[in-house]
């Protein structure tokens, strides 16, 4: 079952959560107060690099018919598309650079090189997903309406295909996002919803049409004017570059939302939610992966998904320094800081999809203590008053220690030994 009481699950008092909000708010304020030319230079240079890579990729595709040149051009173009999608488009449309007051690098004017319209994406992602993060039946990004990612989602026969569905979703990820934002089901609802859905459909059709024309008509035709290229080779290169971008985006996003430790919540958990509880839910519902400078850049700094969910409007180039302070706050309150290597986090998401392709009755772990679905009920095995200060060590005993103690108790029970 998903978490119904985040305070109880986190083993924090009201005073703890209030102090947590103050400390995390101070981090935000420090960064906002220090924004300046260094940050503006970063995004402008990122845009110059992305555009240079795109031009280089297209020139390479036009320059030679050799297979090596084709692959070099295709990969270069795919890299440019990844950077535009992850580090530029996603972050600009979050409003991370609005403080510059540059009309060309602003959340309200940027239109990215993807099938979804920026208008639809800003609503369903910036507002719905970031406000209702991992709340079942409210956050549309929990499985995207296509995948079973938690035991709280009722098993249906189609979930047997969880793995192949995600493979197809990864290949066409931009279209999966676009159609999810479109909310086609509203066409079959009442008059008000139907009219709004028709407007969204017209907006999507215009953007999708322009995207398809650009990628599969205009650029291939322009490239084929060169004697070293053909229309077919250029069209194929654009298609492959888009697939590479889609698969990469899918992997990065799934690593931030669906590995073990990215918790799910119920609707009741947000009733009367304070700022501290919202911060707490963002920390518990997100996951990071470890990255150096290149992987950080290529992931749009979403290797710091926890920090991004805490501060979605802070510029992405500042999240690495923010992460040091956020991790220190987690240690102070004995909260888990979910992270791991990129391959490991991604493998865990596929493992979760594989497990949840089966009905719950075939799964071994307890529904309250499964790696992909936990709730406060998992701590029923602990003695009353566990949270607080450990009398033996004098250290705070919070969620991180409670999870470890619960796992130790279950291991002892499975091995036939009485828990200590």
From TrEMBL:
PANTHER family: DELTA(5) FATTY ACID DESATURASE C-RELATED, FATTY ACID DESATURASE 2
Domain Fatty acid desaturase, chain residue ranges per copy: 69-339
Enzyme class: oxidoreductase
GO molecular function terms listed in the Swiss-Prot or TrEMBL record: oxidoreductase activity, acting on paired donors, with oxidation of a pair of donors resulting in the reduction of molecular oxygen to two molecules of water
Entry EC number(s): 1.14.19.-
Name recorded for this polypeptide: Stearoyl-CoA 9-desaturase
Lineage: Bacteria, Bacillati, Actinomycetota, Actinomycetes, Mycobacteriales
Entry-linked Pfam families: FA_desaturase
CDD domains: Delta6-FADS-like
GO BP terms, alphabetized: lipid biosynthetic process
A Gene Ontology cellular-component term: membrane
Source organism (scientific name): Mycobacterium basiliense
């Amino acid at each position: 079952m998903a978490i119904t009481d985040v305070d109880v699950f986190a083993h924090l008092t009201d005073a703890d959560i209030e102090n947590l909000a103050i400390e995390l708010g101070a981090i935000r304020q420090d960064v906002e107060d220090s924004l300046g030319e260094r940050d503006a230079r970063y995004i402008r240079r990122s845009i110059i690099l992305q555009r240079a890579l795109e031009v280089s990729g297209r020139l390479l595709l036009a320059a030679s018919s050799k297979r090596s040149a084709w692959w070099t051009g295709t990969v270069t173009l795919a890299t440019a598309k990844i950077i535009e999608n992850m580090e530029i488009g996603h972050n600009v449309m979050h409003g991370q650079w609005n403080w510059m007051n540059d009309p060309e690098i602003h959340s309200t004017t940027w239109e990215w090189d993807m099938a979804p319209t920026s208008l639809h994406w800003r609503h369903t992602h910036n507002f719905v997903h970031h406000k209702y993060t991992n709340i079942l039946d409210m956050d549309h990004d929990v499985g995207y309406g296509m995948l079973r990612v938690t035991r709280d989602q009722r098993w249906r026969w189609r979930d047997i295909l969880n793995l192949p569905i995600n493979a197809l979703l990864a290949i066409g990820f931009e279209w999966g996002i676009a159609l999810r934002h479109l909310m086609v089901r509203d066409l079959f609802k009442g008059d008000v919803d139907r009219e709004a859905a028709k407007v969204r459909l017209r907006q999507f059709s215009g953007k999708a049409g322009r995207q398809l024309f650009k990628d599969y008509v205009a650029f291939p035709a322009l490239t084929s004017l060169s004697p070293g290229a053909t229309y077919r080779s250029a069209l194929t290169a654009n298609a492959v570059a888009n697939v590479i971008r889609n698969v990469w985006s899918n992997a990065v996003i799934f690593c931030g939302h669906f590995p073990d430790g990215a918790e799910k919540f119920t609707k009741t958990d947000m009733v009367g939610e304070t700022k501290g509880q919202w911060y707490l839910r963002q920390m518990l519902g997100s996951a990071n992966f470890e990255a150096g400078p290149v992987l950080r850049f290529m992931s749009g700094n979403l290797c710091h998904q926890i920090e991004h969910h805490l501060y979605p409007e802070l510029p992405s180039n500042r999240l690495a320094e923010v992460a040091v302070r956020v991790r220190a706050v987690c240690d102070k309150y004995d909260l888990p800081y979910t992270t791991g290597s990129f391959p490991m986090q991604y493998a865990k998401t596929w493992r979760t999809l594989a497990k949840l392709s089966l009905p719950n009755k075939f799964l071994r772990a307890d529904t309250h203590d499964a790696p992909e679905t936990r709730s406060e009920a998992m701590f029923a095995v602990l003695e009353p008053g566990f949270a607080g200060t450990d009398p033996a060590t004098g250290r705070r005993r919070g969620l991180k220690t409670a999870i470890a103690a619960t796992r130790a108790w279950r291991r002892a029970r499975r091995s036939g030994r009485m828990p200590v």
